[in-house]
């Protein structure tokens, strides 16, 4: 099971270089499993026992399995994650010509660790909007091949580089696409039109706009002397999306189970498809009883917010509270913060810990050092929007927000097992 899950995650990461691709792949897996697609613009006719999914902005998805048991009695079992990861995104007018090279102007999305982007074989993927025969359409594209690179500056020209390097995002991050010859006039939209023709066999009249991200073409892999680790891009937080999907597909048909994968978590979640927007509540209100029943259902429900946690790095152990440092391959981590950066309470933490014990899944606790700031997740945002109780958990990870992160190769199995048990649990606190 462990090898199969890890390989499935590796395949999912490779096929999902952007939130758009991740959402499309999640939707495809749900469709194959018998979930019916709902369109927000159409009337909905849902029924007990039905399995549905809905997307918004092509970058966020909610899957719902309406159980056979009355939801007013048993509540909702929700698992939340997010589809986006820090990266470099292409600007609207990106063409740069410097020293005979064609480069792209880029903008940093989210809290990216920038140094690892240098010297990587990069490709480009995302969503393109264009006109064709008088109609406006959008398609996902993925160049797949390495078409760009951000070379390092040689140590001879920057002798102090190893003493600390303040990277200027405007000047130092534009990747090189090609070396120009003659009177070439780079046209990025023409390049996108060519890719649309190659990938989708269509001719666009005009490329109107796009949302495109650079990504590392090196595939994720199981690594280490004994295969102890998974290394790859976007483990934060596609690992949780994939685990939630696998658990939902294993869920029984009695309880009402929901998987929500929002976009824009890395930049604050304030959008129509982010956790600080109306997406989840609007979908739930269309699928659940109205009036007084809705808040009663929410009061009986629980959200597991799954987002990666910081593992203790052996070279930087002093960055952690000595009593609360999580370890790779030691199970999911309950994340706690008294200032509500995480939504965990003693009640919800106790329930999750009980689930882990019942399933013989190891479980850990994480609290930041008292003299360091704490990150956050969709957990507190979703609870404030919906009023649902939540526990924030995640799999321990090194190098979070790097172009290549590292997690334990045993932990995905642990997470899928406990999330499956959650979806099938007969009673919530």
From TrEMBL:
GO biological process: proteolysis
Positions annotated to bind Zn(2+): 82, 156, 401
Top-rank EC class of the record's enzyme: hydrolase
Name of the protein this chain belongs to: Probable M18 family aminopeptidase 2
UniProt KW Zinc keyword: yes
Enzyme Commission no: 3.4.11.-
Keyword Protease carried by entry: yes
Higher taxonomy: Bacteria, Pseudomonadati, Pseudomonadota, Gammaproteobacteria, Pseudomonadales
Record GO cellular component, one term: cytoplasm
Cofactor: Zn(2+)
GO molecular function annotation: aminopeptidase activity; metallopeptidase activity; zinc ion binding
Keywords, ordered alphabetically: Aminopeptidase, Hydrolase, Metal-binding, Metalloprotease, Protease, Zinc
Pfam families xref list: Peptidase_M18
Family annotation (HAMAP family): Aminopeptidase_M18_2
Family membership noted in the UniProt record: Belongs to the peptidase M18 family.
């Amino acid at each position: 099971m462990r090898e199969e899950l890890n390989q499935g995650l590796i395949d999912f990461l490779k096929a999902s270089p952007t939130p758009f691709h991740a959402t499309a792949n999640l939707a495809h897996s749900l469709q194959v499993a018998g979930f019916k697609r709902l369109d927000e613009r159409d009337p909905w006719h849902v029924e007990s026992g039905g399995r549905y999914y809905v997307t918004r902005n092509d970058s966020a998805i909610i899957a719902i399995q309406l159980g056979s048991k009355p939801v007013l009695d048993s509540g909702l079992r929700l698992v939340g994650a997010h589809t986006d990861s820090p990266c470099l995104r292409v600007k609207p007018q990106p063409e740069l010509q410097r020293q005979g090279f064609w480069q792209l102007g880029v903008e940093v999305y989210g809290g990216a660790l920038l140094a690892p982007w240098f010297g990587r074989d990069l490709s480009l993927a995302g969503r393109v909007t264009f006109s064709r025969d008088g109609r406006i359409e959008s398609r996902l594209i993925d160049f797949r091949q390495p078409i760009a690179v951000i070379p390092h500056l040689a140590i001879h020209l920057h002798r102090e580089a190893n003493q600390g390097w303040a990277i200027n995002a405007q000047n130092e991050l534009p990747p090189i696409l090609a070396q120009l010859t003659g009177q070439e006039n780079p046209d990025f939209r023409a390049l996108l039109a060519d890719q649309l023709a190659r990938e989708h066999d269509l001719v666009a009249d005009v490329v109107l706009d796009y949302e495109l991200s650079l990504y590392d073409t090196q595939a994720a892999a199981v690594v280490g002397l004994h295969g102890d680790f998974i290394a790859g891009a976007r483990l934060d937080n596609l690992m949780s999306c994939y685990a939630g999907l696998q658990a939902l597909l294993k869920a029984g048909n009695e309880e009402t189970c929901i998987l929500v994968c929002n976009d824009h978590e890395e930049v604050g979640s304030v959008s129509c498809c982010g956790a600080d927007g109306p997406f989840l509540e609007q979908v739930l209100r269309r699928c659940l009883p109205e009036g007084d029943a809705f808040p009663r259902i929410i009061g009986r429900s629980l959200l597991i917010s799954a987002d990666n946690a910081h593992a203790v790095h052996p070279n930087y152990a002093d960055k952690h509270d000595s009593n609360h440092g999580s370890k790779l391959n030691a199970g999911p981590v309950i994340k706690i913060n008294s200032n509500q950066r995480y939504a965990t309470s003693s009640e919800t933490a106790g329930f999750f810990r009980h689930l882990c014990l019942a399933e013989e899944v190891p479980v850990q606790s994480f609290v930041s050092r008292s003299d360091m700031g704490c990150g956050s997740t969709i957990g507190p945002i979703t609870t404030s929007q919906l009023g649902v109780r939540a526990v924030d958990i995640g799999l321990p990870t090194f190098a979070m927000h790097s172009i290549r992160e590292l997690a334990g190769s045993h932990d995905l199995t642990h997470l899928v097992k406990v999330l499956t048990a959650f979806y099938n649990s007969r009673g919530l606190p």
